[in-house]
Queue: 4 jobs
Job 1
Amino acid sequence: MKKLGIVLLACFFFAFQGLSRADEIMFGAALSLTGKLAKEGNLVKNGYELWKDTVNKKGGMKIGGKSFKVDIKYYDDESDPNRGAKLVEKLVTEDKIKLILGPYGSESVFATSAITEKYGVLMVQGGAAADKLYTRGFKNLFGIYTVATEYMDDTLEMLKNKSPKPSTVAIVYSNDLFSAQVAQGAKASAEKYGYKVVFYQDYPKGTQDLSTMIVQIKAKNPDIILGCGHFQDTIIIVKQAKDYKVNPKALAFSVGPTLPDFVNSLKGDAENVLGSAQWTMTLKYRDPVFGSNHEFVKMYRARYKEDPNYHSAGGAAAAVIFQKAIEKAGTKDDLNKIRGALSHFNEETLYGKIKFDSTGKVIGKGMPVIQIQQGVQKTVYPEDVAEAKVVYPKPQWK
Amino acid sequence: MIVLQILINGLLLGAFYALIGIGFSLVWGVTNIINLAHGAIALLGAYLTFFMFQQWHVDPFLTIPVSFTVMFIVGYMLQRYLMNLVVKAQIFILLILTFGLEIFLVNFMTTFFSADFRSVTPDYAGHSLILGDIVIPYIRMAVFFICVAAAALMALFLDKTWQGKAIRATSLDIEAAMMTGISPAKIYALTFAIGSGVAGVAGTLLTLTQAFSPNIAGGLTLRAFIVSILGGLGRVEGALLGGLVLGVLETFSSYIVGESYKNAIAFGLMVLVLIVKPSGLMGRKYYAEVKH
């Protein structure tokens, strides 16, 4: 009898909780707020929070002529994807939340999106770039990070019409899964744009020397060198390319140039190196919630006393997209309509012009290209939202 | 021509490996301590150079004496007041102690210097001597000569000075050495100090050719380990040869088989040497006799 009482009480409590906030829309997120991904997890949360307060300050979300305040329920997955999955299950089954904002990290998104798919609730994520997220036939996951295999596509597209026209590409990559996928995609893109791939080889992660590879590349004299690896090997490739006087017309990396340490470590040798970025602070995109990317950066700085990076911007953008789709669907409860609105989403946001393909993967956003110019990262592509012109061909090493 | 270039690259790289290996090999050969913190100690030297370059723009090559002296003192203290407490214990306990020391140092560096990758790029970086088709980067050439000079100096020290002879005597027969008035505790501390000092120098030179963070400590220790096994323990010439062999082997296996296979091939050779000539290429019945 006592047990039944407790159960009834609990039912009341949850029902009450669900009903009491009729003028509010609840989102849920299980993020890594502690543990090894705590830094990124908290940055994504900063993005969500800034979005929430900005929307509420403007009177909330507008659905069918009515205004709704937004709120987000957070859980800490302690950087454990399995725990994240359990917490998302809790959000869905106990907290009755059907709108899930994604966590940070490919493994976490992989695990938690399996839960949202199981319960048929929606997840929009701005925190993972693995291709494998979109090969499972899921209908309820939408992601705004450009995936690994498309990392170098924009760089190659940007370069293809430059003069003197580049025709040959050398691709080197670290032999871990992510870098290998970036390299595979780069090779496919190069062939698509009519380049000839003259050198394609991997190297062990964390290597201390790449002189042999550099000498072999030099013998091929490619117009473009693409490095798909990590910060440490990116530094070695630049240093040894200069040592051995390898002079491609463009030197581009998937990871490295966007980090502030790149210029600190290489000083003048970092000049004119190209890098790929999910997002940069200077992209001139408009945004339906913040007004523009520029405004978002200003508001973020004012609130958190630091510059936003792509983690926090990704969080904010995912939430913006979710909001706009819900408003367009004109309902906060009919998930089929919201899913439809997401599938047909086509709007400019601070993260770029966002559209999704049938697997929920973002298309057409691309990877903005940055170049180190006078020791500063400048966004050089896409040209209509860039702040500077790309320096091409790269001047020869002195 | 490309073969000659790759041979040169291998020798230049090998000299650096040798320098990392010399201190490790000496400490192992004389005190029987497999110092798993060797790479972390080298990184302390690297950070000294990095911060002096960043704060006061001191040329990295000029920081070599500083790295050597500071790490010499650190090494002396570590051995005298930490390792000597357990030096008579089983080798296993020592292994755990140095492993613990490695974890401590890596986390110390991560906390105070951050896990960011660092590198030092002076204005003259990237300039090279060009002889026809052959390119020899000046910095790598300088690193090569410094490594060879350091090896030669150490060989002279061990052969000619009283302390050097005492070190060798201690490693050969500790009881006989004690009878002639040598204090093993002091000699062990001196050996560890020299090993750490040379590791510090290797760390300094590392900043010029690659990027480093506290997390690469293990990789450096591993290189030192291979060099010591290849060359034979406790002998400076052995470590020099071991380093050069490893360097050339790596660059040639990258060229012939593929970059990704170079580590596998290096370890394969190490295993082969252990089977065919367990005392190393230049090892003799001298240093590193297994002690009770």
Note: The CA atoms of residues 211 and 333 of chain A lie 59 Å apart.
Job 2
Amino acid sequence: MDWVNAIIQGILIGGLYALFAAGLSLIFGVMRLVNIAHGDLIVATAYLAWVIIKATGVHPLVSLIFVLPIAAFIGYWLQIGIFNRVLGKDILPPLLVSFGLSVIIQNGLLATFTVDSHKLNAGVFETSSFEILPGISMGYFPLLMFFTAIAVIIALQYMFYHTSLGRAFRATSDDTEVALLMGLDNRKVYAWAMAICLAVVALAGVFLAIRSNFDPFMGPGRLIFGFEAVIIGGLGNLWGTLIGGVILGVAQGLGAELDPGWQVLAGHLAFLLVLAIRPRGLFPRIAG
Amino acid sequence: MSDIISRSTLASKLAGLVALVAIAVLIAAPWWGSVATERLIGEFMVYLALASLWNLLAGYTGLVSVGQQSFVGFGAYIVFSLALLAGWNPLYTVPMAGIATALIAIPVAKLVFRLQGAYFAIGTWVVAEVFRLGFAQMSILGGGSGKSMPANVVKQIAETKFWREATIYWLAIAIGIGALAMVYALLRSRIGLALTAIRDNETASVSLGIRIERVKYLVYVFVAGMTGLVGALFALQKIRITPDAAFSVNDWTAFVIFIVVIGGIGTIEGPIFGTIIYFLLREFLADLGSIYLLILGALAIGVMLTTPKGIWGFIQARFNLSLFPTGFRVLSKDKS
């Protein structure tokens, strides 16, 4: 029964990993940028929620009303102020800048909030569950995370293929110069993509903070989980990202069942295994 | 014909002379400096080597790795494994650490080379995490809490403290200067010509018949082996190992990237100046703790936004100066 439980919990946690990954995937799809500070931004939004809850006393899920737009606003200006200046043919400058940003966010959080870990308290909702089979129960909160991930992916897919903003994203991604000729300002398009990315990041950050303790140095680990989900699922495929997250979650769950020290390691090994046999991921859509 | 083609310039001849004198002074440090001086210079050499190697990788082949800590940690663990488990003299383990690390880099390269660009970067990081978590599981090497080198093993390096410190110090000089010299020699060779071509234009260099993937692969494995040597040096300097310190992304990759970016990526001189600047900053600001790292990150972003070729790139463009030239130039005698 423990094994079945581990698999079910792994599947549900896969939803959270898909949320980590969705923003990465979106940004890479639109502007070929891999943001090394992605994980640190997730943690930063968790702190943002923590501050807002401390000041207003609202429920963590209600705090999203504030955290989401603030994060999107920050994303927009992060893109205009920093990333747009280094994006170009050479991938090195944006990569190094995002690496610097990662160190700045980590140490900024450390200087402001100390190394103590925090957690967002969502009340009984966090721990309540129901039995699906004798001995196997499902938590409401992990289920909410999982279905939120599905909803986010549906929303992103819809945005990409059925809205004018999505058309601008696809056009800029396909051919920046022609998109410019058609009157699309690629800097603004990129800024909107980063704003949406940060909104998804904020969602992931609040869920992460409800689920477990967080501290200033958790970011890189979250970046790696998100990245692994993207690569396992296949570049450019949002639904693949969800499957990648689920595979990662299940591998970690099974690893932890074997030995607690093996939890994260098992996830990494699953990723390397996929890389060895299917280098383009399980369900690739675009060339890397 | 009064034009001559030459590699060296007055500046480069002077720089070579200064470098020789500096190396001689450094080798004599055990007699003019304290143990603290030796250790500081030793640490400087660690970063000089890592920065030169990372610069070769990222600045010339475009392979941006954020997982070089894999090889530092692996080299360090080879030293501890051979010295503690196989009973080797710690000094003799050092070359083995380099060889073993180059060997382990072959399958690693096979895996991570499947990823492109920035995804390659994070892929190398995952490998480093696998190494860290894997070594943390090995209880024979102390598991997560690590291991210290017992006194009787350390004494095999040399009987007295003076000679022990001096031996490890000279090893640091040899690895630091050696790495720099090897990168320099490599860049002046045929491979260096290929690397410079790749750096300047990857597509054009393919059309000229450079087998990019092969060159990149060779450089990656070479850099890994040398990085393993640095890890071995680190193990002897600290005589204590933990997975978190040996595979630290901050110590072995973040700082190294900042050094290269600030100094000037894609130049020989950049990492040298970057390392000097890094140590100066550290001497004055390290007490600030997290604020210091914040400043370092901001400085790296600032340099990237304003002078993407770093401080040395700026000087080079402004004064047409090259201390360690790898290319050739035409010197016209008519003009002078």
Note: Residues 33 and 238 of chain B are 19 Å apart (CA to CA).
Job 3
Amino acid sequence: MSENFRLNKGGLINRNKKISFTFNGKKYFGYEGDTLASALLANGVHLVGRSFKYHRPRGFFGAGVDEPYAIVQMNRNNEVDPNVRATEQELFEGLEAKSVNCWPNVNFDIGAINNFLNKFFPAGFYYKTFMWPKSFWYKIYEPIIRKAAGFGAASIKHDKERYEHKYEYCDLLIAGSGPSGLASAYAAAKNGAKIILAEDKSRYGGSLLTSEVTIGNQSGQEWAEQIISELKSMPNVIVKNRSQVFGYYDHNMLVMSERVSDHLPKTDKYTPKQRLWYIRAKEVVISSGSIERPLVFGNNDTPGVMLSSAAKEYLKVYGVLVGKKPIIFTNNDSGYEAAIEFKKNGIDSIVLDTRKDANSEIIKQAKELNINIRFSYVVVAAKGYKKVNSADIAKISDDKKNISNIENIKCDCICVSGFWTPTIHLASQSGNKTKFNEEIDAFVPSHSKQKETTLGSANGIFTLEETLKTSFEKGSELSKKITNKENKVSIPTVAEKKSSKHDKFWCVPLPRGKKYKRFLDFQNDVAVSDIQLALREGYRSIEHVKRYTTLGMATDQGKTSNLNGLQLVSEVENKVVPQVGHTTFRPPYTPVSIGAIVGREVGKYSKPTRKSPMHYWHKKNNAVFVDAGVWLRPRYYKQGNENLFEASKREAKNVRQNVGVCDVTTLGKIDIKGTDSAEFLNRVYTNAWLKLPVGKARYGVMLREDGIVMDDGTTTRISENHYHMTTTTAQAANVLSHLEYYLQLVWPELNVNVVSSTEQWAGAAIAGPKSRDVLQKLFPNLDVSNEGLPFMGYMEGNLFGVNAKIFRISFSGELAYEVNVESDHGNFMWEKIMEIGKEFNIQPYGTEALSTLRIEMGHVAGSELDGRTIPYDNSLDGLVSKKKDFIGKRSLSKKAYIESDRQKVVGVVPLDKKTSIPEGSYIVKDAKAKLPNPKLGHVSASCWSVEYDNPFSLAIIKDGKNMIGQKLFAMSPLKNKIIPVEIVSSHYVDPKGERVRS
Amino acid sequence: MLYIKCPHCGLRPQTEFSYGGDATVKRPELNKEVSDQDWDNFVYLRKSPRGKHLELWQHISGCRQWIKVERDTLTHEIFTTLKANENI
């Protein structure tokens, strides 16, 4: 298809490079440097989508970030990319895009029936309609509404694109490369400040690309090009295009989304699609410019109605005519710029100016060019369904209340200009209390809360001369404060046309008897009548009106709709706009893809993975791993076709019968030194520590101040003032912080130092009746007999040339030792243990067997020390000192903690000795009781007892002490099981603890 | 994201710190009689002021020191940061 609306020359596109693309399955072509929007317009395509609520045809309204309509779904590298603005998507060879929110297609959309049923879709229709019967909402109404609404469909596949994060620090972050951004960046760069200049479009220059101005002896565009190339050559400046600063957060942290390869057909694997920049700036310059405001009239959403600045941009940047018979509808001088631009390219337009009369240089120029201008004229309504084909225009009275002389004139586009709205989003996000500027009928930034400065038209300054002057000055002033350097930059002279005052008019009254929809919010289909209805129904606060009508709530964040909405509310309410106030601007300014927010932290990269020094031995020996916090631990070692249950049973049994070895490197380890270490431990743990001899370990429990058990573990006195503490794997970091808290803040007078040594030691637990035989062979020169190394004893040894720490401690309840060597020797130690243990039938065991062993011994662990239990609940009464004070002791005398029927850990055995009890099951007295069945407690951990060859569980139940021997039920509603059980002692195996001391 | 000046390390992003609550709470002395009410106040009761708040942060991914930060809970403005043993 040929391009009928492309001019033969002009624009900034590369006419030497033709690009083909498809839209809704149809092939078109455009040029390098086009956006999808400009290329479609060049091909005369105006119908790109359907509206959100009424499914009315949608075309193009803007030419950039403000676009409310032209949202398309992209298919890029076989990845779906929804919610893409066609006005921002640059064209590349093979680009595929399609319309959204229409079915079966954009030309024939069944949902458009909503347009004719619109009396059933008033403001707040969700709240009013579909209310009865209740179940219909979930089953029928909601699914249909969800299907009908929305801007495209997200992919349900994993996004294979790469996204990256970057952190950057700078003196000045400048958001926007229009005249104010360029001038401030240039002045600041000359003062030596470290600068980031961000531009959301692909081309730098902002309004300079489309305005007829001269700076020095250059055109605006030439000047912008020269400044950019100078900035790019400076080492202290980062210049980024396709980069949107979308969020202003606390302490001058801004986030910017860079579209690295969205504009390219296919990139290599390692080039990110997008990059998210976290920028901490000492000062921020907001040079985000302004967005033209629409004028409100009947059917002002018809394709072909667009902003006059957009029409001008399509002409000047892309060489594209948005129409050949345009009407320009304006309340200020800006509309004339489009008219003149059309005229220069041989297109005659009619300018309808709402003002009674106006005189300025540009109007004079238009008159000289014989452009047809009608003052005191308005567009009453656009005509045409899928495209404007004519307009009803009329004369408007001086008080703007009455229209007369309605006539219909042919046209193919209506370019509107309702003056300019400063883009204050970033300033507002930073906490700036904005103020209303009567002069321009818009809000501008006022008092800064953070280190930000808004310049140029974003600050309501609409002349280039003043913009450049203030921006050069501010850029210099802000940077001088930081660098203490000043290199004077001379401010160039500017030639621009002076404008006359704009008309405050914004909404055309309805002609008698007509009910045209006059839209305020183009993306969410909010019309004047919707706001009026909301106000009639009693909504007053602008925040409530917004939520009730969805005005300004769409993905365009009301960039074109906010102020007209405020005008309407203030008019109906007889207030002035500043009294109504504006709704809160929140980040992001433009939609940000979830992928960019997540960055590289996907799947296995979402958290660090810690591996023990023996990890590769485990892997080689068929270990099946499990996540234990951030650690990977062997869960079991698979032999043949074994499953988890069979393998863990075999491993646990071998520990009970022979000897097993378990990697315990992951246990938290804290090195404690200092003359007050014993006193400190005595305060931290619930039991007594002052008299622990050197070379001995002790089991301890530590509490939080509220009496809840925080952690348990053994601590060994290595020498007089040196202790080695172990914590559970999960609590290691918290325990260290806890100790540091007390040492630094509560008892700073204690001479104690703590440091994490988890990663310094590799640990192997050797457990089982034959463990001593293995140990003796590992350390032939040591006396490791029951007398030489008794239970809870400690000694140091030499493991074939490697220094080792040997602790006689046991988690499995068997005779057991833990050997620690420096991490680098971990694998050596492990292989030696396996080699020497071979003759004693040693087998490695994983966390599943480890759990089995501790559960049937009744040793409490994480599932019992779950942040809700106190020492008594865990039968740790013997460890709670009556004599001394310790952290959390005072809480233990709370009434609730000393009640006689307090919960307690018990053992649970199914009566049939066969049925395993699911963890989390409730223990109840009567399985048939009416719901809710009062629960006595829950099953905290379950295993298959290898000692007795039947299921065994631990449970924490009310009055557990007195429940032993009772027959109760374990109920698992999740697994739909009711299991008759007997309550037994939690110490199921070796209740007297003889084996560990043997 | 806050930018916190660690008195030991300098300005660091919030992600390096963990929050520790009200810095003005005093733990009752060891081995002293404490009433139920006083103990409850110490363990559970905290003010939630709108405005200035002296609070604890720990520079966990840095020097591991607990520090005091005077912060506005409404605006997040940080007025001053102190070492553990310093007082405002």
Note: Helices of chain B lie at 36-43.
Job 4
Amino acid sequence: MSTDRFKDNKMRFDLQIIASWIEPGSKVLDLGCGEGDLLKFLKENKRVIGTGIVRVESKVAQCIEKGLSVLHGDINEEVLDYPDNMFDYIILSLTLQQVYEPAKLIRSLLRIGKKGIVSFPNFSHWSIRLQLLLTGYAPITKQLPYEWYNTPNIRVITIKDFRRFSKEIGFNILKEVAINTNNHDKEGSVIRFLPNLRATYGIFLIGKGES
Amino acid sequence: MSEYIEHDKNGISVGLVEKKFFTFAEPPHEMILESAEKLGPITIAYETYGRLDPDKSNVILILHALSGDSHVAGYYTRDDQKPGWWDIMVGPGKGIDTNKYFVICSNILGSCMGTTGPSSINPKTNKPYGLDFPVVTIGDMVKAQKALLDHLGIKKILSAIGGSIGGMQVLEWCVRYPEMVVSAIPLATTTRHSALAIAFHEVARQAIMADPNWNNGDYYSGPKPNLGLAVARMIGHITYLSDESMRHKFGRRLQNKSDFSFNFDADFQVESYLRYQGAKFVERFDANSFLYITKASDYFDLENQHGSGSTVKAFSKTRAKFLVVSFTSDWLYPTYQSKAMVQAMKKNGLDVSFCEIEAEWGHDAFLLPNDRLTKLMKGFLARVYRQIQR
């Protein structure tokens, strides 16, 4: 995994990796696209035809001002309208942990897209394990910086959990990378040894199951 | 819907503009209307701002709503009290930048601001048409606009933009002439009126027709049905606002008095406002035009006229890139109606952006200064203009 060529752009490190997985000229749907940084990068550098979905009006506006195609709405509802295999890639970056019905969303994602790219904060990072063990309080980290009562992150997911989830739901993991970075960090490193313990994020390229 | 017009706060304007006219469909080549009736000759009043690119790729067509006209921006004379109805949006450096784009707006068929309508002279009788004017549809309005664009030698529209009934024309353009429309911005509009919208229009029409001066539409040589038209306008204004905006704007405040008058004068500010708007409207608008245009908008049904009952099928004809905008407090054309059209566009794999803007001003929000709307339109137009130049 070469990430050197992304060092100069200002995207989050996990987004840099996601961008490196996307074939030029693809059709991409970014669920929870934020301010559209990834879509803008993909459009300018990879000739991607992109669409984003985002719930917050001000972010919708920022995206459209940047010249992106973006829909104002809830990702769980908006994915239902698209025809099968409409997109080459559906991106769900750092959003899965906020989804109420993850299995349903992943199924929709692999219905409307040929492949999915899913990233999430790894809840089994050693610092989280240690916090719970030593303090007895719900862990708070740079990646998951909220108290239990105000967090939008209603799911705790580990890299191992996601692998097991793929078998239960019936989708294939085509590629996975574990990374260590801080939220909004532009740089990070790929973790190859003991990723479930040492990585702050997991990023998965997923495809439809055999059946 | 034009009581908001003010001079630009920064003094930025397209400057002096001129209303122009184009006449076509001279007998025996009349236009065949959707009702199968013939109409001709037809005169279209229109205005243009900005400069047309040599390759004619920068055309923006603005479609106006019920009571609008071709006068979108700028001034006819230096002494004009008010600029055009969307001066906040159209001008140098504004949301629709006249330094970049060539803007065209024409008065709709059936109106009374220079384009042929029921108050125009019927060449067969040398008297105003009145109810002899055939019922026109949104499709007929768009066909007439197409004739104007043909006359101007324009084959591509970079963007068709309009709100409310103007938004209906935007959608009609996209499905009727898909090869011409590169992009479209339908604002606060719908593919078909709800029963609620039709109901308000019907009450407004009944108010006009109940005025004895209306005289079956034949009033041009005598007193006009001003009372009926004013009441129709008052009804319209209620639907353009919202509970919230009326609460803020008027509340239960009294008009120039400290207590009730215990008679039927205008006690409340809201009553006084509606009376004022009604009275002002009759000075500039024709009652029959009001009947014809409201009817045209009630008849509009994109799914039935272009998709055999399916919105998805209706939009399968268009290739335009869309920016759909609705407003949270618009209860005349609520967001669910915009979302339904966005859904149909998505099912067709069309390039569509959608934003529901938080605004308290009801349906009229699209006419009010709104930084968000301005920036959305500016960004969207810049993108489609870049793409067409590649």
Note: The two ends of chain A are 30 Å apart (CA to CA).
